[in-house]
Design a protein that fits this description.
Blueprint lengths: L2 H11 L3 E5 L18 H4 L7 H4 L2 H6 L1 H12 L8 H11 L3 E6 L5 H5 L4 E3 L2 E8 L5 E2 L1 H5 L15 E5 L8 H13 L2 E5 L19 E5 L12 E3 L3 H12 L1
Parallel strand pairs: 1-2, 1-7, 2-3, 7-8, 8-9
Antiparallel strand pairs: 4-5, 4-6
Helix pairs in contact: 1-10, 6-10
Cofactor: Zn(2+)
Main location: cytoplasm
Protein name: NAD-dependent protein deacetylase
Protein backbone atom coordinates (compact mmCIF):
# COMPACT_ATOMS: atom_id res chain seq x y z
CA UNK A 1 0.00 0.00 0.00
CA UNK A 2 1.52 3.33 -1.05
CA UNK A 3 1.12 6.60 0.84
CA UNK A 4 -1.87 7.81 -1.18
CA UNK A 5 -3.67 4.49 -0.69
CA UNK A 6 -2.94 4.62 3.02
CA UNK A 7 -4.38 8.13 3.23
CA UNK A 8 -7.52 7.00 1.42
CA UNK A 9 -7.87 4.02 3.77
CA UNK A 10 -7.62 6.21 6.86
CA UNK A 11 -10.17 8.65 5.43
CA UNK A 12 -12.58 5.76 4.79
CA UNK A 13 -12.37 4.56 8.39
CA UNK A 14 -12.58 8.03 9.93
CA UNK A 15 -15.72 9.94 10.85
CA UNK A 16 -14.27 13.06 12.46
CA UNK A 17 -11.59 14.56 10.22
CA UNK A 18 -10.01 17.99 10.59
CA UNK A 19 -7.85 19.65 7.94
CA UNK A 20 -5.25 22.26 8.94
CA UNK A 21 -3.81 24.09 5.95
CA UNK A 22 -1.56 26.89 4.83
CA UNK A 23 -0.49 28.74 1.71
CA UNK A 24 0.75 25.60 -0.05
CA UNK A 25 -2.86 24.44 -0.27
CA UNK A 26 -3.52 27.10 -2.91
CA UNK A 27 -0.30 27.16 -4.96
CA UNK A 28 -1.79 24.75 -7.51
CA UNK A 29 -4.59 27.29 -7.91
CA UNK A 30 -2.03 29.88 -9.02
CA UNK A 31 -1.62 31.70 -5.71
CA UNK A 32 2.05 32.00 -4.58
CA UNK A 33 2.93 30.88 -1.08
CA UNK A 34 5.15 32.92 1.23
CA UNK A 35 8.29 31.08 2.27
CA UNK A 36 9.24 28.71 -0.54
CA UNK A 37 11.95 29.52 -3.09
CA UNK A 38 9.30 30.95 -5.44
CA UNK A 39 7.24 32.43 -2.63
CA UNK A 40 6.19 35.99 -2.02
CA UNK A 41 8.80 36.67 0.65
CA UNK A 42 11.62 35.60 -1.67
CA UNK A 43 10.46 37.35 -4.85
CA UNK A 44 9.90 40.64 -3.01
CA UNK A 45 13.33 40.81 -1.38
CA UNK A 46 14.44 43.79 -3.45
CA UNK A 47 11.43 45.94 -2.61
CA UNK A 48 12.16 49.07 -0.49
CA UNK A 49 10.01 47.43 2.20
CA UNK A 50 10.10 43.75 3.13
CA UNK A 51 6.71 41.98 2.96
CA UNK A 52 6.62 41.61 6.75
CA UNK A 53 6.80 45.41 6.97
CA UNK A 54 4.24 46.02 4.22
CA UNK A 55 1.81 43.61 5.88
CA UNK A 56 2.11 45.08 9.39
CA UNK A 57 -0.57 47.08 11.16
CA UNK A 58 1.64 50.09 11.82
CA UNK A 59 2.56 50.24 8.12
CA UNK A 60 -1.11 50.09 7.12
CA UNK A 61 -1.91 52.93 9.51
CA UNK A 62 0.99 55.08 8.28
CA UNK A 63 1.16 54.20 4.57
CA UNK A 64 -2.22 52.83 3.50
CA UNK A 65 -1.54 53.82 -0.11
CA UNK A 66 1.66 51.76 -0.35
CA UNK A 67 -0.04 48.89 1.50
CA UNK A 68 -2.92 48.83 -0.99
CA UNK A 69 -0.60 48.93 -4.00
CA UNK A 70 1.14 45.82 -2.66
CA UNK A 71 -2.08 44.18 -1.46
CA UNK A 72 -3.91 44.54 -4.78
CA UNK A 73 -0.88 43.54 -6.83
CA UNK A 74 0.32 40.56 -4.80
CA UNK A 75 -2.37 39.35 -2.40
CA UNK A 76 -5.56 39.40 -4.44
CA UNK A 77 -6.29 36.59 -6.91
CA UNK A 78 -10.02 36.90 -7.61
CA UNK A 79 -9.95 34.54 -10.60
CA UNK A 80 -8.24 31.67 -8.75
CA UNK A 81 -10.21 28.42 -8.70
CA UNK A 82 -10.20 25.57 -6.16
CA UNK A 83 -7.90 22.63 -6.83
CA UNK A 84 -8.18 18.97 -5.95
CA UNK A 85 -7.46 19.56 -2.28
CA UNK A 86 -10.24 22.11 -1.83
CA UNK A 87 -12.70 19.94 -3.77
CA UNK A 88 -12.00 16.74 -1.83
CA UNK A 89 -12.35 18.52 1.51
CA UNK A 90 -15.70 19.95 0.42
CA UNK A 91 -16.83 16.46 -0.58
CA UNK A 92 -15.77 14.98 2.76
CA UNK A 93 -17.67 17.67 4.63
CA UNK A 94 -20.80 17.02 2.58
CA UNK A 95 -20.48 13.30 3.37
CA UNK A 96 -20.29 14.09 7.08
CA UNK A 97 -16.71 12.87 7.51
CA UNK A 98 -14.91 16.21 7.76
CA UNK A 99 -15.69 18.30 10.81
CA UNK A 100 -13.83 21.49 9.90
CA UNK A 101 -11.17 23.14 7.78
CA UNK A 102 -8.75 25.31 9.74
CA UNK A 103 -6.87 27.55 7.34
CA UNK A 104 -4.17 30.18 7.48
CA UNK A 105 -5.22 31.29 4.00
CA UNK A 106 -7.26 34.39 3.23
CA UNK A 107 -8.27 33.49 -0.35
CA UNK A 108 -11.70 31.94 0.29
CA UNK A 109 -11.05 28.98 -2.01
CA UNK A 110 -12.37 26.44 0.50
CA UNK A 111 -15.73 28.19 0.50
CA UNK A 112 -15.64 28.52 -3.29
CA UNK A 113 -15.20 24.73 -3.47
CA UNK A 114 -18.25 24.20 -1.25
CA UNK A 115 -16.90 23.93 2.31
CA UNK A 116 -19.00 25.72 4.90
CA UNK A 117 -17.29 25.04 8.23
CA UNK A 118 -14.06 26.96 7.53
CA UNK A 119 -12.15 28.51 10.41
CA UNK A 120 -10.07 31.32 8.91
CA UNK A 121 -7.25 32.06 11.34
CA UNK A 122 -5.95 35.03 9.36
CA UNK A 123 -9.22 36.44 8.03
CA UNK A 124 -10.42 36.81 4.45
CA UNK A 125 -9.94 39.11 1.47
CA UNK A 126 -13.69 38.81 0.88
CA UNK A 127 -14.56 40.75 4.03
CA UNK A 128 -13.67 44.42 4.38
CA UNK A 129 -15.02 47.13 6.65
CA UNK A 130 -14.85 50.87 7.24
CA UNK A 131 -12.59 51.53 10.20
CA UNK A 132 -14.95 54.28 11.41
CA UNK A 133 -18.57 53.20 10.87
CA UNK A 134 -17.87 49.46 10.33
CA UNK A 135 -19.86 49.31 7.08
CA UNK A 136 -19.17 46.07 5.18
CA UNK A 137 -17.56 45.94 1.74
CA UNK A 138 -16.88 42.97 -0.52
CA UNK A 139 -13.79 42.13 -2.55
CA UNK A 140 -15.16 43.79 -5.68
CA UNK A 141 -15.40 47.08 -3.80
CA UNK A 142 -11.67 46.92 -3.05
CA UNK A 143 -10.69 45.92 -6.60
CA UNK A 144 -12.83 48.55 -8.34
CA UNK A 145 -12.24 51.45 -5.93
CA UNK A 146 -11.28 54.61 -7.84
CA UNK A 147 -8.78 55.75 -5.23
CA UNK A 148 -5.68 53.83 -4.16
CA UNK A 149 -6.99 53.76 -0.59
CA UNK A 150 -10.66 52.70 -0.71
CA UNK A 151 -12.94 54.85 1.41
CA UNK A 152 -16.39 54.32 2.85
CA UNK A 153 -19.21 55.69 0.70
CA UNK A 154 -21.19 56.45 3.85
CA UNK A 155 -18.71 58.30 6.05
CA UNK A 156 -15.45 58.60 4.12
CA UNK A 157 -13.47 56.43 6.51
CA UNK A 158 -10.62 54.18 5.37
CA UNK A 159 -11.69 50.63 4.50
CA UNK A 160 -9.51 47.87 5.94
CA UNK A 161 -9.45 44.25 4.78
CA UNK A 162 -10.49 41.72 7.41
CA UNK A 163 -7.06 40.07 7.31
CA UNK A 164 -4.77 39.66 10.30
CA UNK A 165 -1.72 41.84 9.81
CA UNK A 166 1.55 41.53 11.70
CA UNK A 167 1.16 43.07 15.17
CA UNK A 168 -2.54 42.13 15.25
CA UNK A 169 -3.98 39.33 17.38
CA UNK A 170 -5.87 36.37 15.98
CA UNK A 171 -9.60 36.17 16.61
CA UNK A 172 -9.97 34.41 19.95
CA UNK A 173 -13.31 32.85 19.01
CA UNK A 174 -11.74 31.24 15.93
CA UNK A 175 -8.84 29.98 18.03
CA UNK A 176 -11.14 28.42 20.64
CA UNK A 177 -13.26 26.76 17.96
CA UNK A 178 -10.09 25.41 16.32
CA UNK A 179 -8.90 23.92 19.60
CA UNK A 180 -12.31 22.35 20.13
CA UNK A 181 -12.51 20.61 16.75
CA UNK A 182 -8.89 19.47 16.89
CA UNK A 183 -9.35 18.00 20.35
CA UNK A 184 -12.22 15.79 19.21
CA UNK A 185 -10.91 14.74 15.76
CA UNK A 186 -9.88 11.17 14.94
CA UNK A 187 -7.81 12.05 11.83
CA UNK A 188 -5.75 15.21 11.28
CA UNK A 189 -4.69 16.22 7.79
CA UNK A 190 -2.05 18.94 7.72
CA UNK A 191 -1.35 20.38 4.30
CA UNK A 192 0.65 23.09 2.57
CA UNK A 193 2.11 24.71 5.65
CA UNK A 194 5.63 25.12 6.99
CA UNK A 195 4.20 25.13 10.53
CA UNK A 196 6.42 28.08 11.47
CA UNK A 197 3.77 30.77 11.97
CA UNK A 198 2.66 31.03 15.59
CA UNK A 199 0.31 30.82 17.38
CA UNK A 200 -1.43 29.07 14.48
CA UNK A 201 1.12 26.24 14.14
CA UNK A 202 0.83 25.37 17.82
CA UNK A 203 -2.83 24.47 17.37
CA UNK A 204 -2.08 21.02 15.97
CA UNK A 205 -0.66 19.98 19.37
CA UNK A 206 -4.26 19.78 20.59
CA UNK A 207 -4.94 16.81 18.32
CA UNK A 208 -5.08 13.55 20.28
CA UNK A 209 -6.68 11.29 17.68
CA UNK A 210 -5.49 8.22 15.81
CA UNK A 211 -3.48 9.46 12.82
CA UNK A 212 -1.71 12.63 11.64
CA UNK A 213 -0.98 12.98 7.93
CA UNK A 214 1.42 15.71 6.81
CA UNK A 215 1.20 16.77 3.16
CA UNK A 216 3.92 19.32 2.50
CA UNK A 217 6.52 19.79 -0.22
CA UNK A 218 9.31 20.74 2.19
CA UNK A 219 10.36 19.36 5.60
CA UNK A 220 8.82 20.74 8.79
CA UNK A 221 9.67 20.51 12.47
CA UNK A 222 6.68 18.18 12.90
CA UNK A 223 7.70 15.54 10.34
CA UNK A 224 8.77 13.00 12.96
CA UNK A 225 5.45 13.32 14.77
CA UNK A 226 3.40 12.50 11.69
CA UNK A 227 2.17 8.97 10.98
CA UNK A 228 2.35 9.58 7.25
CA UNK A 229 4.40 12.04 5.17
CA UNK A 230 3.50 12.97 1.60
CA UNK A 231 5.62 15.48 -0.35
CA UNK A 232 3.87 15.32 -3.74
CA UNK A 233 1.70 18.29 -4.79
CA UNK A 234 -1.30 18.29 -2.48
CA UNK A 235 -3.89 18.94 -5.19
CA UNK A 236 -2.66 16.00 -7.26
CA UNK A 237 -2.60 13.75 -4.19
CA UNK A 238 -6.13 14.68 -3.19
CA UNK A 239 -7.37 14.07 -6.74
CA UNK A 240 -5.97 10.54 -6.53
CA UNK A 241 -7.50 10.04 -3.08
CA UNK A 242 -10.84 11.25 -4.44
CA UNK A 243 -10.69 8.58 -7.14
CA UNK A 244 -9.71 5.87 -4.64
CA UNK A 245 -12.66 6.77 -2.43
CA UNK A 246 -14.97 6.12 -5.40
Amino acid sequence: MNATEQLAAWIKESSNIVFFGGAGTSTESGIPDFRSAAGLYQTEQHSPYPPEELLSRHFFDQHADIFYDFYRGKMLHPDAMPNGCHRLLARLEQEGKLQAVITQNIDGLHQKAGSSNVLELHGSIHRNACMDCKRFYGLDDIITAKDTVPRCTACGGVIKPDVVLYEEELDQTILYRSVDVLSSADLLLVGGTSLTVYPAAQLITYFQGKHTVLLNATPTAYDRQADLLITDPIGEVMNKVDQLLG
